[in-house]
Structure formats: structure tokens, C-alpha cells
Design brief:
This protein has 224 residues and is an alpha+beta fold. The chain has 6 helices and 14 strands. A 5-stranded mixed β-sheet has the order 2-1-5-3-4. Strands 8, 9, 11, 13 and 14 form a 5-stranded antiparallel β-sheet that branches.
Length: 224
């Protein structure tokens, strides 16, 4: 199917032009298009984390499915500035430094950064990697709700959460949580609560891939 790609400001410069017509496979999503464009246009890859994507005039998420003749717009931050999202579900390596930077603020004297990585062993078994699956719409809403509720529980608290989906090899980050606060105690407390609530409330599942046998889904606790 064909889509029309339009880009503005620095995105237009990275593409070498304002408009392109692209052929993409049926059923492609915004995330699929992002992978294609980042591979084809290295300058675009460097600014992609700053971009918003709109499909047919509406802001889109990575899982948004494209249609034949869709118009996809690449939108850098506007001159007046744009709010940073509190939470992210990503299909690529988590940009931990960027997550921490979006949480930090001059009013906050403490920033706590938690990074959870895929372990190479579980219960004495060698683990090669993990596949994370999610019910994306619900997972996105629950992550955002957790961040909002925690921010409302502490004065001047800022919470940012990113969770990676798909196949992740041992040693790479699967989740990152950055919490900024005027005081360290609140930052530590909110960081711990964010992780514990994520594990209890967000519909994300993991399948461990072992070096010594078949993969296994880890479904240890019911969602609450």
C-alpha cells in the first residue's frame, strides 16, 4: 500500500525534502514505518526521539496501523515547546539518558534512576533473552495512570517510565524509571512504588528463552 509522508523543520531537512510517497506492506504500523525510515535516513534516526507522528491529522502511537493513502506527518517540537510524555512503550533500546533528562528539573534536588535489565540466569538456568508482550492500549493507560497518581501523592514530583517490548537479549534494559523530587526520600519511595505497581497492574508478559531448553512464559501473579 502507498502512504504520503510529510515532514517539517529539522525532520524535513533529515529527509532531504518535505514530501515523499512510500510503498509499505499492508498492516504496517507507525513503529514499522519508524524502523524503515531510521534505517534509510541516518540523520532522521538521530532526531527521531524528539518527533511526534500524526496519521491523517491525529497524533499517533507506535502501534497505530497505517491505511492505504494515509498521510503521515513527522512533527518536531514546536517553537513554544512541547510537553514530554510521562510514560513510553518502546520497541527499541531504551534511551535511559533521555528519560532521566526529561524527569530532571531545577526545582528537584534528587533524581533516582532505576534500570531493570534482563538477567542471564533464572533459578540456576541460563537465560539468553526475554520476549515481552503487552496489551498495548491498556498497558499505556495503566503506566500513565501510575505516573499521574504518584506525582499527585508527592509535592513537585516528576515520574518518567519506559518499558521495552519485543525480544531483548540478556544484559539489555527492559524497563527504566526516573523520578525527580526536591527531596531524596520521596524520590526513592516513588521509584519503588512505580516498579511494584507496574509489575502488579500493567498487562505486560515475559517469555524467558533458555540456553538449555524451550522458552517459558512467566505468568507468576494475576493482574490486580
Amino acid at each position: 500500500m502507498k502512504i504520503r509522508l510529510v515532514a517539517f523543520a529539522t525532520a524535513r531537512e533529515a529527509l532531504g525534502g518535505r514530501e515523499l510517497e512510500l510503498e509499505v506492506p499492508n498492516g504496517s504500523t507507525v513503529a514499522d514505518l519508524a524502523s524503515l525510515l531510521r534505517a534509510e535516513y541516518p540523520d532522521l534516526a538521530t532526531i527521531w526521539p524528539r518527533l511526534a507522528v500524526a496519521v491523517d491529522g491525529e497524533l499517533a502511537q507506535p502501534q497505530t496501523e497505517l491505511q492505504d493513502d494515509s498521510e503521515v506527518a513527522l512533527l518536531p517540537p514546536v517553537s513554544g515547546g512541547a510537553p514530554q510524555p510521562r510514560t513510553l512503550l518502546v520497541d527499541e533500546v531504551i534511551d535511559v539518558a533521555r528519560l532521566e533528562a526529561t524527569a530532571s528539573h531545577p526545582s528537584c534536588g534528587a533524581v533516582v534512576l532505576f534500570v531493570g535489565s534482563v538477567r542471564s540466569r533464572h533459578r540456576q538456568r541460563p537465560v539468553e533473552g526475554i520476549t515481552y508482550d503487552a496489551y498495548r492500549p491498556m498497558a499505556a493507560r495503566r503506566l500513565e495512570a501510575i505516573a499521574v497518581e504518584l506525582e499527585s501523592s508527592f509535592d513537585d514530583l516528576r515520574v518518567r517510565i519506559a518499558h521495552r517490548l519485543g525480544e531483548i537479549p540478556a544484559g539489555e534494559a527492559s524497563v527504566a524509571i526516573a523520578v525527580a523530587s526536591p527531596h531524596r526520600a520521596a524520590a526513592y519511595d516513588a521509584s519503588r512504588q512505580a516498579l511494584e505497581r507496574l509489575k502488579r497492574e500493567v498487562p505486560i508478559w515475559k517469555q524467558e528463552h533458555y540456553a538449555d531448553g524451550p522458552a517459558k512464559w512467566r505468568e507468576d501473579e494475576p493482574l490486580r
